[in-house]
Write a sequence for this structure.
């Protein structure tokens, strides 16, 4: 299972630590910064998938950080502020933040918003980076043939349903790229994804069982917790 890295930038150390505990319990890796400049230094050095950013910080405030990040990155940003006025929210969102929460906040709601932002980010990336259509894909010891709709492992046929094949082909044709449940559902089922459905999870679970049986226990399909699925090249 791969870990998403999240940056918390807040000069209130108690709040930062509380958020960190909740995120860590959800399986995320968390970095912290106590001011805007420290946050930008971490963003430059680390692979950050989401930023939780306080508006009022010393040295460089949250709005300045958002402007600086948006010159180079499309990383999802969730802003936190003690200011509840509509104009403060509008300023944060128009500056480039993706979401805005007012302190004090419900920690479970924050986690839900984090997951939503990550899913949306992965889905948009999947849409922006379409894979090149290939008749055959060789990944690890699997040979996937789109033309014959078959999957072979060392000469043995892996018995997959049509839907399982389509999911495997989709993931294998985007090696190393995380695809959300939304992206997978809409690409394979050609229908609008419903938040409450666990259709993708059920099919991937069955697909995994079949592949691991043929691959001697090798876990080909990786879960990126709270975000989606991928196959490493």
């Amino acid at each position: 299972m791969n870990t998403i890295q999240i940056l918390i930038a807040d000069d209130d150390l108690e709040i930062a630590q509380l958020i960190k505990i909740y995120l860590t319990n959800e399986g995320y890796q968390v970095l912290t910064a106590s001011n805007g400049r420290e946050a930008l230094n971490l963003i430059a050095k680390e692979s950050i998938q989401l930023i939780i950013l306080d508006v009022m910080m010393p040295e460089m405030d949250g709005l300045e950080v958002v402007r600086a990040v948006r010159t180079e990155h499309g990383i999802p940003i969730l802003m936190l502020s003690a200011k509840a006025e509509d104009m403060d929210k509008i300023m944060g969102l128009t500056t480039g933040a993706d979401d805005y929460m007012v302190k004090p906040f419900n920690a479970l709601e924050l986690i839900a918003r984090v997951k939503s932002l990550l899913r949306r980010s992965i889905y948009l990336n999947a849409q922006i980076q379409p894979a090149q259509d290939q008749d055959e894909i060789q990944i690890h010891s699997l040979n996937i043939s789109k033309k014959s709709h078959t999957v072979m492992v060392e000469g043995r046929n892996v018995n997959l349903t049509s839907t399982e094949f389509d999911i495997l082909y989709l993931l294998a044709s985007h090696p190393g790229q995380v695809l959300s449940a939304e992206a997978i559902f809409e690409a394979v089922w050609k229908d609008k994804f419903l938040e409450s459905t666990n259709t993708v999870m059920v099919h991937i679970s069955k697909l995994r069982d079949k592949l691991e049986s043929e691959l001697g226990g090798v876990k080909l399909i990786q879960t990126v917790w709270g975000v989606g699925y991928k196959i490493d090249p």
Q: What stands out?
A: Residues 135 and 146 are 5 Å apart (CA to CA). The chain has a mean pLDDT of 85. Residues 5-128 form a domain with the Rossmann fold fold (CATH 3.40.50.2300).
